[in-house]
Amino acid sequence: DKSGISKGELASVKAAVGGLDALVDDRHPDAALLRYLAYEEDKEQKLLDNPRLLRTPIVRNGRLATVGFCPEIWKGWT
User: Fold this and answer.
1) What is the C-alpha separation between 44 and 13, in angstroms, rounded?
2) What is the DSSP letter of 22?
């Protein structure tokens, strides 16, 4: 589903995965341009405006989260 992510959800996942760079899908044509934006707030807004820039799947387990396919991590979640 490419319907997007809320600002609060983005902040929560960003904190869980160690920063904004972990959320960006490097295969997307605009990924390199996103990295050149000077301000973190501008990068976040670009991700909110264009959710196709996000790596998927984004999987949450309470305060924990993963970005991308991580079955080895999911197995450890209870």
Assistant:
1) 12
2) G
Whole-model pTM?
Answer: 0.85
Which structure tokens are listed for 47? 């991700």
Query: For the stretch 37-62, what's the b/e string if a residue is b when 16 or more beta carbons lie within 10 angstroms of its beta carbon?
Result: eeeeeebbeebbeeeebbbeebbeee
DSSP H or E segment with residue 64? strand 64-67
Across 3-17, average pLDDT: 92
Each residue's pLDDT tens digit, 15-46: 999 999 999 999 999 999 998 999 999 999 99
Q: Are 66 and 74 in contact (CB under 8 A)?
A: yes
First CA to last CA across the chain, in angstroms?
25
